[in-house]
Amino acid sequence: MSASKIIPSRTALFLLDYQVINAHGKSSCAAVMSHAASIIKTARSKGITIAHCRVAFTESEMNAIPETNPTFYKAKTNPEAAPHFLVNSPSSAFYPDVVPQEGDIVVRKNRVGPFLNAPQDVNEIFRSRGIDTLILGGVSTGGAVAATVVQASDLDYKLFVLEDACADADIETHEFLMKNFAKRGRVIRSEDLEGLVE
């Protein structure tokens, strides 16, 4: 397999945390999620699998978050924030522009990255379909995307990161990480996608 080419039958467009909660008050994130709709359309037309991942907790999972996990412990202990992260909350739902369609892979996670301590074995789901290449988009760049790049790289996936399908509240963090991600995969823009598909 060429390191620079995408084989559709072995590839998933993996979209991370494109959720209603991540659009509120974050114009860059909302814009990226809306833009992702056209990326999904292109990927579908090429026969690439679409995979959606959201962060959401059952009540028992929320109650079990330890103090040693500052990211989600902070949400757990904030009575205004915690309900928004529950599985059935409208806030944790997928953003309207990128709602999964029939046949898409849909997974849930309860940590920043999708491969560790998740309710579903995401790696097994991908491998069972012969997927060894991931095209990543998500919010935030410094959270879900960074965690997924590291975890997926360690699991030996071939990686492409869509720069214009990722966003972070801190633009400097976004720009720094995009340079860093190039050490673990290839950073591309959505307009590059068609030319990379074999």
Summary, kept brief:
Belongs to the isochorismatase family. The chain is 34% helix and 19% strand.
If you had to describe this structure to a student in words, what would you say it looks like?
It comes from Paraphoma chrysanthemicola. Keywords: Hydrolase. It is a single chain. The protein is of the alpha/beta class. The protein starts with 10 loop residues before the first strand and ends with a helix. β4, α5 (141-154) and β5 (158-167) form a beta-alpha-beta unit. The longest helix is centred in the N-terminal third of the chain and has 19 residues, at 27-45. Helices cover 34% and strands 19% of the residues.
The whole-angstrom Rg is 16 Å
Order of strands in the sheet with most strands: 3-2-1-4-5-6
What fraction strand?
A: 15-25%
Q: Overall pLDDT, averaged?
A: 94
Secondary-structure element order, N to C = EHEHHEHEHEHEH
> Count of helices?
7
N-to-C CA distance: 10 Å
The count of strands amounts to 6
Helix content: 25-40%
Globular, elongated, flat, extended or rod-shaped: what is the shape? globular
The largest sheet, given as strand count, sense and whether it forms a barrel, is: 6 strands, parallel
Residue runs with pLDDT of under 50 for 5 or more positions? none
Keywords: Hydrolase
Domain Isochorismatase-like: 11-189
Organism: Paraphoma chrysanthemicola
InterPro entries: Isochorismatase-like_dom, Isochorismatase-like_hydrls, Isochorismatase-like_sf
